[in-house]
Amino acid sequence: MNTDAGIKDSPLLRVEGLKTYFFQRNAVLKAVDGVSFTVGHGEAVGLVGESGSGKTMTCLSLMQLIPKPGSRIVEGEVWFRDQNLLGLHEHEMREYRGHKMAMIMQDPQTSLNPVYTVGNQVTEPVNLHLKERGQRALDRVLEALRSVRIPNPEQRLAQYPHQFSGGMRQRVVAAMGLVTYPELIIADEPTTSLDVTIQAQFLSLIRELQLEYGTSVIWVTHDLGIVAQMCDRVNVMYAGRIVESAPVRNIYKEPQHPYTKALLDSVPKMGVKRDRLYQIEGLPPSLHSIPTGCPFWPRCPAAMDICHEEYPPRTSLGGDDFVHCWLAEK
Amino acid sequence: MAELLLEVENLVKHFAGPHTMFQRKGPPIKAVDGITFSINEGETFALVGESGCGKTTVSKMILLLERPTEGVIRYRGSDVHTLKGRDLRGYKRSVQAVFQDPYSSLDPRMQVLDIIGEPLQVHLGMRGSALRTRVAELLENVGLGPEAGASYPHQFSGGQRQRIAIARSLALQPQLIILDEPVSGLDVSIRAQILNLLRDLQQNFGLSYLLISHDLAIVEHMSNMVGVMYVGKMVELTTKDDLYSDSLHPYTEALMNSVPQPDPDIPMSTTISGEIASPINPPSGCRFHPRCPLYGDSDICRDLEPDWREVKTRHLVACHKV
Asked: What span, in angstroms and rounded, lies between the C-alpha atoms of B313 and B322?
């Protein structure tokens, strides 16, 4: 963990009013519509939401990897330490992407190249970012593979992705991200394709690495179990915006937004007997037709007249915590 | 006690292994290796396990999509592989399935009316307005309006598609529906809708379910009996209440500990190391022994396959150390 108190006060990453839109022939789709959050040094922050809530687009915007043409970051600031990444040129951005901030993608099947050896792929960021070659690069790669607990890394280097099991492949992807000692890791649903016991191994591995190197992590997921276990702070996203942000315990014990409450009530929990699960009616809104006012109102059990008309302002819950809901505003 | 609907006895399925340079036929893949269980009428039996444990192969054999290498499947007392003609069609009508991925299990070029109506046309020869009335009724059962019949699958969301797949499985008034990971492809808020719907349908129509899942929280919510599988073998089988209060097999224990709980005050416990064994070359003796926390180098676990025995009433387990 970072010992320098001065650095610790200012967050590692500060996102301000980020807006990323898709531009289509006759529509503008607001995939990310004014997202602000911070990630402290060594902190694990969750971005939670359902498909289409904008959580993956937010992360791709941070890395400036959004699909082009078609989408554009129209507004906002992404401060990494004291540098606004959105003002950088592409070649300057490469200093950050894959070096100071790395992304672990969802599907190890597609994020590894099948025709290159694993050693080759993990060495690439070392050559590119750390400008190290030969034995020094090799040592680093072996260390990274060892840190993600891949047995016999020396032999495994010369193998291809198909010779690895799903769990091991996901570890290779993690090693690729970790090999440059990034300060920030963005983990986009990294365990969805893994079996439960393998997922548990991977989660505890990431947690150990986080303690060891003081890395900050953004967890992008819809799995409320992973969020509860891995995150210090949770940002709940709905229709392109963060609707509630609070430390993990507050989110689970005293959720303020009706969507957060409903989400928590709708998952079956082990050891809790219920005849019926709480059911959120309707569907998550499509980007083509986001309801006016608060986008959750058609599904909200507590919707009032004002909810149809105006998006609720940010209500502070003390500290950095906030919620966007007219109920809290009253 | 409820009546027996389906019995599976000592079911085995070996697939031909991949051939090598020197051998035309590789060693067989032992996908399912001698499992026994039964499903009662109106109840839900859950098969739990990780990838490669054979749970989907079991369901395919029950649906007669795969022929077992050995073993018997009995439906209401009669061996389904001896059924012929009308009886066989009757069996196929009474056992239906809902699959995991509602995007690939519905034909994109068929209207919903035809998707749901096809089994009615094929099995019952329904046509015209009788067909449309029945399809509308089925759509209503799963919470969709009759106007959905004229639409195509791409016009629906994942949850609605899964409702259409459920309506299709209900069309022939089956006794048993096989649910193969029915909600794992869906959004969190939609999962509860589908799970509640499945429960309502079970109560209204007296259905039995064979639920195949890896999600232990969903299994606890839905099932009456649970069988835990590991690499082609059943390792533990008992009532839901017994399994969740007093699981005996170390693998079941490991599975339960591996589930991240949606509660920050219940920390994740230590889990097991190692990887899931391959059914091509499963470990000797107890297949779980290389990962087992109770193994401790004992010869018996390494050399001898554990017996399938009843340790308590309605609680069977295969482990030397229990």
From this structure: 15
- Phi, then psi, of A327 in degrees rounded to 5: -60, -40
Q: For B260, which of A50, A198, A203 is closest by C-beta distance? A: A203
Instruction: Assess if residue B322 is contained within a domain.
Output: no
- Terminal Cα distance for chain B, rounded: 28
What residues 30-89 of chain A have any CB closer than 8 A to a CB of chain B?
50-51
Q: In angstroms, rounded to a whole number, what is the distance separating the alpha carbons of residues B125 and B119?
A: 9
Within a domain: residue A127? no
User: In chain A, what is the greatest distance between 2 CA atoms, to the nearest angstrom?
Assistant: 68
Q: Measured between alpha carbons, how far is B146 from B216 in angstroms, rounded to an integer?
A: 35
Instruction: Write down how long chain A is.
Output: 330
Work out how many domains chain A is built from and give that number.
1
pLDDT in tens, B46-64: 999 888 888 989 999 999 9
Neighbour order of strands in the sheet with A44-48: A101-104, A184-188, A216-221, A44-48, A233-238, A241-247, A322-324, A314-316
Å from B221 to nearest chain A CA? 7
ipTM: 0.85
Cβ atoms of residues B73 and B80 within 8 Å = yes
Cβ of residue A16 closer than 8 Å to a chain B Cβ: no
Distance CA A315, CA A329 (A): 6
Which CATH number belongs to the domain containing residue B210 in this structure?
3.40.50.300
d(CA B279, CA B266): 34
Number of domains in chain B: 1
Residue A241: φ, ψ to 5°:
-130, 155
Could you tell me if B259 lies within 8 Å of chain A, comparing CB atoms? yes
- Tens of pLDDT along A95-142? 899 899 999 887 777 889 999 999 999 999 999 999 999 999 999 999
Q: In whole angstroms, give the CA distance from residue B144 to residue B166.
A: 11
